[in-house]
Structure prediction request, 351 residues.
Amino acid sequence: MTDPRRVVQGRGAVTNPQNRFERLAYERDPEAELDATSPETVFYRDPTRTILAKNESPDVGFERSINPYRGCEHGCVYCFARPTHEYLGFSAGLDFETKILVKPDAPQLLREELSSPGWVPQVIAISGVTDAYQPVEKRLGITRGCIEVLAEFMNPLFIITKNQLVTRDADLLGTMARHDAAAVFLSVTTLDGDLARVMEPRTSQPTLKLDAIRELTAAGVPTGVMIGPVIPGLTDHEIPSIIAAAKAAGAQYASYVMLRLPWAVAGIFEAWLEEHFPDRKEKVLNRVRSMRDGKLYDPKWGVRQKGEGIFADQVRALFTAAVRRAGIEGKSPRLSAEGFRRAPDRQHRLF
Prediction:
């Protein structure tokens, strides 16, 4: 499906490019009036029978993850996960933000997998791909259900999210944290609320993300800030102020990832720049290319997360100096699986 470029209220992408796996494409009548109102989000039930995904990428820091949703209504225009929607027959553009698959059976599936004699207790990431606290979670509570299971088994977890909704689960996370079994990172891309509205329209505003760091820290949950992604030529200058604001809110840890533009994301992001920041478009894209061996994306392990070259070195130095100045010592806390307990079969609890 292909759409002409257009700004859609409350959405990040300004295009809906053709799925790279599909031969059939639909084109909008160029004379038809464009509706700038936000298209309705449609939710589909995901029939998956497993919930723990296995990661084989050596540069992400975890081996197992839970993704209660596929697609993400947050609508971050830069999201590296957009191309995963093409495997479902959708577009990586507006479809990714408006056609969401939900996994209501996730908590029960997780309980079954953790109960298996073959399960080796280890840290599980929540939101390894799409955000587990996107808006519909407030209504469905699937992520909350998964955390309840993890707390029951005391299996360690860490969460990365862009949504203040994570504070709803501070009670469970605080309990797990007392056993070194929980940590949360708030992903902060910018402190500019206006920029956030067009770049990541349905995430929590930056001030609310900082409030979430403050609330989780008060609940005893090890909390950090993930500057994700750093967008060269657009947000890289904010690194010191983001680190300082996060530290003031109580963040104990900090890390960053560089902008990644795999597959369709490159075109989606380029169209967004042309629509919202045409004067900065070439500067941003040229900076990205300088970090990616002349391309908009380099998938090499160890390079894709941070980039390489003079500008990548400058960002790394800026981040290092900001962290040192703020007094933040580590990238992430050490989590422990020593408290793991094999929960008894639920049926046996009746007797």
User: Anything to note?
Assistant: The mean pLDDT is 93. The CA atoms of residues 190 and 235 lie 6 Å apart.
